[in-house]
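Lab meeting, action items carried over

1. Structure of the two-component assembly. Owner: GW. Status: complete.
Input record:
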Amino acid sequence: MEILSLKGEEFEKEVLSQKGKVLVDFYADWCGPCRMMTPIIEEVAEELKDELKVFKVNVDNNQELAIKYDVMSIPTIILFENGEVRKTYIGVTDKNELINGIK
Amino acid sequence: MIYDVIIIGAGPAGVSASLYTKRGNLSTLIIYSDESSLEKAKKIENYYGFENGINGKDLYNVGIKQAKNIGVDTKKEEVLNVLVGNEGFRVITDKDEYNTKAVIFSTGNKKNKPNIKGIDKFEGRGISYCAICDGFFYKDKNVVVIGNGKYAISETNDLINIARHITILTNGKQAPEFRAENVDINTEEIEEINGEKKVEEIILKNHKKIETDGIFIAQGVAGSTEFAKKLGIITKQDKIVVNKKMETNVKGIYACGDCTGGLFQVSKAVYEGTIAGLQVINYIREKYTKGE
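Predicted assembly:
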């Protein structure tokens, strides 16, 4: 499942104003480990498509968002619920760990 | 040239893997540098085939000789970085750079993480294990690199054009020979790492403070944990996660022996090395020879 990369101004609408759970993968194109995270995030999005929305945020183009959410290492995956941060995963994270954490 | 497989570490797991890959006609290079935990074992009495037991160092040296005897290339160099290349991977050492289609990590059970108060609390919140991955977040900021060896210098070099100022903190060890305009070296021992939500300062044993935005851990020789972070390999409690085929989540990268956790036994390392070697043969055949 292809994951949409959000621009700064879309973040408010798609993540913060959403009721329910939203998973956001903070990444950059030059980041090797982020590329390893991509297929895992896509599988999570597919398996949990009825339960949560999944987006990516490119930290190169959205530094203010990275700073706001204290992203200092990528990939960082943040689970939002009703617009608030519920969990943060730093580094490439196993699919099952993510799914268990989201449920 | 491009190797079919580079094996990092020359203990029982790495050497066993090489025996299979070399006999399976793969060009094989083992790179090893520092001491294996096997060398420190005075006498091994629970491994098959030695009626009076065997000294760990002897077993280790015989293993390397055995690999050389069947034509495995070996280099005694320190691996500083492993990167995804255009085709396969690039392994960068203190002396050279090698290209390979597959990598087997058999780096043993090294613990490079310094035992400093606050280090776990701030992991990912100012504490980093990979300059090339996280340097971006420290543009024009002050950072500290903890370490004093070649690996610490390599990490410092990855930060030198990004950070405003770098302090190499040796934590009581000897200062490395290294000079650069925006780099200081401090040999004091560390008491603890402090901050509220993220790293803010390091308190030294002499009660002095270093204010910093980030800390890069690069103590000793880089091991599997550091390489895993650079490549995006999944780890659990600092051990590389592998499946029954010794595959990591990164295609073309395998791990075996103590760096995968479980029993720290020669027999387990040999078994895992065997599987990794055989699987790499399959991987190379399927990926590179089909359709030729």
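2. GW to write a short summary for the group page. Key points so far: Chain A has a mean pLDDT of 93. The radius of gyration of chain A is 12 Å.
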